[in-house]
From TrEMBL:
Signal peptide: none annotated. This is GNAT family N-acetyltransferase. The keyword Transferase applies. PANTHER family: ACETYLTRANSFERASE, ACETYLTRANSFERASE YPEA. Gene3D superfamilies: 3.40.630.30. Its EC number is 2.3.1.-. Residues 2-147 form the N-acetyltransferase domain.
Length: 147
């Protein structure tokens, strides 16, 4: 049975292997203590909201949301920055349930909406569009990297 839980500090050890696998997937090195500190800081400072998916009490996926603000709309919204499901549990509806949890949280807490960014070749685009997410074709996104 798949369940979704909002993460507190008590679940940090549950999410850590998934978070490390997610970072490894994106070409980063595993640094368990730094990853744990990062997640703990986000939660204790209330800088993110994390939902964790369990399949029969085994942690199998997560999504992390970060708040942002719009001066134009005078509203806050959320950035769905991370979405990851362990490869053994993909294509079983877990990512969809995590997206649904994020949508519920957004609506319940009066956010304007959710934004996400994904690679142009990410097959998850199909899921996002199927679940009502709309591709932004009206603007470009730029990023500057501090050296």
């Amino acid at each position: 049975m798949v369940t979704i839980k909002q993460v507190s500090e008590a679940e940090l050890e549950d999410i850590l292997p998934l978070f490390n696998a997610y970072r490894l997937f994106y070409g980063q090195f595993i640094n368990e203590s730094a990853a744990l500190d990062f997640l703990k800081d986000r939660l204790t400072k209330k800088e993110s909201v994390i939902f964790l998916s369990y399949n029969n009490k085994v942690p199998v996926g997560f999504t992390q949301l970060y708040p942002t603000f719009s001066s134009v709309s005078l509203q806050s919204s959320l950035i769905l920055n991370d979405l990851f499901v362990h490869k053994s549990y993909r294509n079983k509806g877990i990512a969809k349930k995590l997206l649904e949890a994020a949508k519920r949280y957004c609506g319940t807490n009066n956010y304007k909406g959710l934004a996400l960014e994904t690679a142009t070749d990410n097959p998850a685009q199909y899921l996002y569009e199927k679940e009502g997410w709309q591709k932004d074709v009206h603007c470009f996104h730029y990023f500057w990297t501090a050296k």
